[in-house]
Amino acid sequence: MTLLERDPKAAPAWRGELPVTSRYTFGLAGERFFRAIQEEGRILGTRCDGCARTYVPGTIFCERCLGELDKWVDVGKVGEVHTYTLLYEAPDGSQRETPEIVAFVRLGDGGLVHRLGEVEPEALAIGMSVQAVFKPIAEREGSILDIVYFRPI
Fold first, then answer.
1. Are 61 and 68 in contact (CB under 8 A)?
2. Which among 94, 91, 79 has a CA at the least distance from the CA of 152?
3. Is the entire prediction scored with pTM above 0.85?
4. Which end of the chain has fewer beta carbons closer than 10 Å to its terminal beta carbon, N or C?
5. Residue 86 pLDDT > 90, yes or no?
6. C-alpha distances in angstroms, 78 versus 61, 74, 123?
């Protein structure tokens, strides 16, 4: 059914559960990136020496020169807050008592969108240094949530 064939009186959103019939895979670069987080507690990127760029998360091709990237580097656990936002509403629509803080943390020439913790909203600043806090190794599952949050240092 196309948008033009859609009943204008139909519900605007699906309520309830949908069965999942496919699986998402990380791909070659994502597999290595998430395995390093899970098994080693390290954040990896790929380096393009020709363009002098380090991609985080790692990719298999440079977006500038299209060269294949096979040089993986540990970018460390410390990054810099590039921008942030305060979330006053929970996913279910309820109001939060204290806002959740989400930031783009610059690592290398890329970075991660993730939670900030151990910081009050009044203390936030663009450019502040933050460090990744990982779950204990026994609790890691190979996802971005193996990094619990980034905290100021």
1. yes
2. 79
3. no
4. N
5. yes
6. 24, 11, 18
